[in-house]
Design a protein that fits this description.
- The chain is of the alpha/beta class and about 400 residues long.
- Among the domains are: about 150 residues, 3-Layer(aba) Sandwich (Rossmann fold); about 130 residues, Rossmann fold, CATH 3.40.50.920.
- The chain has 15 helices and 14 strands.
- It has a seven-stranded mixed sheet with strand order 4-3-5-6-8-7-12, with helices on both faces. Strands 9-11-10-13-14 form a five-stranded mixed sheet, with helices on both faces.
- Helix 11 links the parallel strand 10 and strand 11.
- Its EC number is 2.2.1.1.
Length: about 400
């Protein structure tokens, strides 16, 4: 990623010495730098061995470095503005208490599948303490592969593992990081691989982690893969059913899971099927259909309650699968309420739920679709702040319905 920038500086004859993390320098980047004889690069090797969920694959190997010489040079070097000064005497006491989002670990369905089928394996990109794939590792370590922070390799290993139906691989990482492996996923589809991808931490609702971690393009990417199946469960029960269905569905399967701890909507015995939506709320007086998934399904339900107080009744639909979409249910309900649909999603407009629904009803001229979604590159904040700031909260849904 970084080396082309250094080439630009070289072409401009700029006297800039660029310092980059060695982790950013892939083999291709190193070859590129060597080919153009870039002499303004300083590679900084991070040897602290710390990953996210465990130590890195190489660990802490510093015997080859002259640590004493490095230390002496560092202490004798000129310090810049970023070196902290000693605290002043009258400085206020530092409050180290930081509020955090409490997330209840789910009953991890993949671990249950591992109990009954040894062919089910999990692969993770050093996020297992966030995606909870560590629960499979704890129960069945022989059915788990840690692939570290290398998502292209993560998908490649899974594709190799599923050859000749030897395993049913579930890869997991933050959904945003699967974008790095888009080519591997695309080529897996070309070879008709049986690959399951579970992408967590989606949308602005992840909150403080910021835009680099917010998956807002993932639905578009996985919907575009030929023959793919895309699940978007909205509670723990539907997430379990999605995992079961994914294990029994051949091909490229994506399960989009959110970060916030959400209430349980469905009874454990509730049946789910691919391509079948759930009508979560309806009445004989409905005037509009609201379609949301994950965190926005709950915003739709909140909005429906608020609208009802002003005499406007809304039907609320949980699509469960975005691909294939339950066209029959959506069209039927839209015609029943007078042809109005409002989709709400924690995703960019391109390739998301709004476009999927619009495509599904395109042949019906008496149905209109309006979509609200994340329209700009977001920033950090609390989940509630960001859901409202980027226009997908219940308040914005109510406003959109009243303007429809």
């Amino acid at each position: 990623m970084t080396v082309p920038v250094e080439l630009r500086h070289d072409l401009e004859d700029a006297a800039n010495r660029m310092r980059i993390s060695a982790i950013e320098m892939t083999c291709a980047s190193k070859t590129f730098a060597s080919h153009y004889k870039l002499d303004n690069l300083v590679a900084i090797v991070d040897a602290n061995r710390l990953g996210q969920s465990q130590e890195t694959s190489l660990g802490h190997k510093v015997d080859v470095y002259q640590v004493g010489a490095i230390k002496a040079r560092f202490h004798g070097s000129q310090k810049g503005k970023l070196v902290p000064k000693k605290p002043v005497d009258d400085a206020p006491k530092v409050d180290l208490h930081v509020g955090s989002i409490k997330i209840a670990p789910p009953a991890y369905k993949l671990a249950k599948l591992g109990d009954v089928n040894p062919r089910v394996i999990g692969l993770d990109g050093d996020t297992k303490n966030s995606t909870f794939s560590e629960k499979l590792l704890q129960k069945h370590p022989q059915q788990f592969i840690e692939c570290f922070i290398a998502e292209q390799n993560l998908v490649g290993v899974a594709v190799g593992a599923q050859c000749r139906d030897r395993t049913i691989p579930f890869t997991s990482t933050f959904a945003a990081f699967f974008t790095r492996a888009t080519d591997q996923i695309r080529m897996a589809a070309v070879s008709f691989a049986n690959l399951k991808c579970v992408g967590s931490h989606v949308g602005v609702s992840i909150g403080e982690d910021g835009p680099s971690q917010m998956a807002l393009e993932d639905l578009a990417i996985f919907r575009a893969i030929p023959g793919s199946t895309v699940f978007y469960p909205s509670d723990g029960v539907s997430a379990e059913r999605a995992t079961e269905l994914a294990a029994n569905t051949k091909g490229i399967v994506f399960i989009r899971t959110g970060r916030p701890a959400l209430p349980v909507l469905y009874q454990n015995e509730e049946p789910f099927a691919i391509g079948k939506a759930k009508i979560v709320k309806q009445s004989d007086n409905d005037k509009i259909v609201l379609i949301g998934a994950g965190v926005t399904l709950y915003e739709c339900l909140k909005a429906a309650e608020q609208l009802e107080k002003s005499g406007v009744h809304a039907c609320v639909i949980d699509p469960f699968t975005i691909k294939p979409l339950d066209q029959e249910t959506i069209v039927k309900q839209a015609k029943r309420v007078g042809g109005k649909i409002l989709t709400v999603e924690d995703h960019y407009p391109a390739g998301g739920i709004g476009e999927a629904v619009s495509s599904a009803v395109a042949d019906h001229t008496d149905i209109r679709v309006h979509s609200i979604c994340v329209q700009t590159v977001p920033r950090s904040g609390t989940p509630d702040e960001l859901i409202d700031l980027y226009g997908i909260s219940a308040r914005h849904i109510v406003e959109a319905v009243n303007k429809f």
